[in-house]
Amino acid sequence: MSVLDLARPEIRMLEPYSSARMEASGGQIMLNANESAWEPVGEASAGCNRYPEPQPQPLLQALAELYGVQREQLFVGRGSDEAIDLLVRAFCRAGEDAVVIQPPTFGMYAVCARIQNAAVIEAPLAQDFSLDIPALLGAITPAVKLVFLCTPNNPSGKSISRAAIEQVAQALAGKAMLVVDEAYIEFSDQPSAIELIGRHEHLVVLRTLSKAWALAGARIGSLIASPEVIALIRRIMPPYPLPLPCVAAAQAALSSAGQAAARSHIDTVREQRGLMYRSLAELPGVREVLPSDANFLAVRFDDAGGVYRRLLEAGIVVRDVRKYPNLRDALRITIGTPEENARVLGSIS
């Protein structure tokens, strides 16, 4: 069985759109895309009169080196959100197929599924936010095409071990695609699931430059999978998903200087996460600080709503996660600079 047998047959047969940039073969005078011949005003807009490369090779190469994969295993799009949306559209038939999620988890898995009119099956995490593998596998039906795992989990911060991921991957072989979202993996000691892709062709890993690489505003996310899955996703991608200034920002972030800065900031976040974990746990009104492998802490309060309002009055915005199951008394607090973290502690105490 080919992994592509899990995809929608009409997507496998689809004739992909061929953009003008794809068809340009090294020309010098570009008159094939109805672009303006004049560059816009402003140094930051240089070159923006031309459509960008759909999948720019220098960026693909830099990301391939960062993640230890081949360029043919990479699709780069507008954050992980676009990758999630494309996966759902490629594998789920409207009104027939389903996805499985483990709440509490990142909300876009369900949103993208419901936009596609795919069913959303929930296999909740255990009480301690660990993956309940028997419950997850028990939720699999013939309609399920995608299973989403978020590690470290958003919003709890708990990681899934690579051994557990491989156990799930083995159980899903020939049944469904396993999508592992590693948006916060840089802040964790857990190894990436990327190394498992060679053994499990139905495994997909999502990575992003939004968090550890400080490019949330540039919207650069990667889908890493077998070359066959990547080729399928590229059939349905928008003609020009990556704006030229965003590509430039990503390439700067992935330079030697950019990588050194990111590593330094990751070290600071990890140090501050430990400090905030200990300091928050000592404050009155704090019930529990959940252990976290991410760049945030989920904190239970006696009066989470009151703390949220108090922080907002102090000009500090945190995430109210009380709508999530098993987090009805919690706020999610991102780890900021040492000065910002000190203000949080001062405003809560």
Automatic annotation (TrEMBL):
Modified residues (N6-(pyridoxal phosphate)lysine): 211
GO molecular function: transaminase activity
Keywords: Amino-acid biosynthesis, Aminotransferase, Histidine biosynthesis, Pyridoxal phosphate, Transferase
Keyword Transmembrane attached: no
EC assignment: 2.6.1.9
InterPro entries: Aminotrans_II_pyridoxalP_BS, Aminotransferase_I/II_large, HisP_aminotrans, PyrdxlP-dep_Trfase, PyrdxlP-dep_Trfase_major, PyrdxlP-dep_Trfase_small
Catalytic reactions of this protein: L-histidinol phosphate + 2-oxoglutarate = 3-(imidazol-4-yl)-2-oxopropyl phosphate + L-glutamate
UniProt enzyme class: transferase
Cofactor(s) needed: pyridoxal 5'-phosphate
Pathway, per record: Amino-acid biosynthesis; L-histidine biosynthesis; L-histidine from 5-phospho-alpha-D-ribose 1-diphosphate: step 7/9
Domain Aminotransferase class I/classII large: 44-348
Subunit and interaction comment: Homodimer.
PANTHER family membership: HISTIDINOL-PHOSPHATE AMINOTRANSFERASE (PTHR42885:SF2), HISTIDINOL-PHOSPHATE AMINOTRANSFERASE-RELATED (PTHR42885)
NCBIfam families hit by this protein: hisC
Family: Belongs to the class-II pyridoxal-phosphate-dependent aminotransferase family. Histidinol-phosphate aminotransferase subfamily.
Name used for this protein in its record: Histidinol-phosphate aminotransferase
Record gene name: hisC
